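User: Second chain of the day. Same drill as before.
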Amino acid sequence: MLQLRTAQGSRSRRALGRTLLAAALLTAVAAGPAVAAVPRASQAHQAHQASKTPQAQQAQQAPAAHGNLGAPAHQQVAHFYGAYIDAVSAEGGGELATALRKFYLTPQLRSRLDAWERRNHADGVLRAQNVPLAFLVTPGDSATGHTWSTVRLTWSRGEHPTYSYLTVRSDLATGRISDIGD
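Assistant: Same format as last time:
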C-alpha cells in the first residue's frame, strides 16, 4: 500500500511542492521529445541504417510507456491522485488539474468524465464536490492488458473517519488511466 497524504497542517507546503513537481514533470515531458528529435547528420544516418534491422523495426512497433517508465501502474495512479488533489485544492490550480488529466488519462476517459460531471455537478476524478483530506492507493489484479487499483479517499478525521472507494483501471501498454468507477 502507498499512502501519500495524511496531515492537514503541512497541506499547503506539500500542495505547493507537488504542484511545482507536476509542472516540472509536464514541462520535461513536453520538452524531451523536441530536444531528442534534433540529431546531427551523421547520427541521423547511423540511426537510419540501424532502423533497418529486424530488432529495431520490432522496437518501433512496440507501444511506448507513458509517464514514469517502469513505474508500477498503482504508483502512476498515486502520482496522479496526489498531484490532482493538490491542484484542485490550490487557488488557481484549474489549469494544472486540466494538464494532469490530459497527461494521465486517456482521451476516452476524459470524454466520459466530462459527461459524468455535467450530469452530477461534481468532479469526476474524485466523484465528489469537495476535496478529500487524504488518499491511499492499493494495487489490484491485472489481466487482458489492464491493471486495477483501489483508491481510498478520506473525507473526515476522528475515531470513525469517512471513506469512499474508487476502482481505477490503467492500460498496461500506455500507462494511462482508462477508467474510474465507484
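Residues 11-36 form the longest helix (26 residues).

User: Great, on to the next one.
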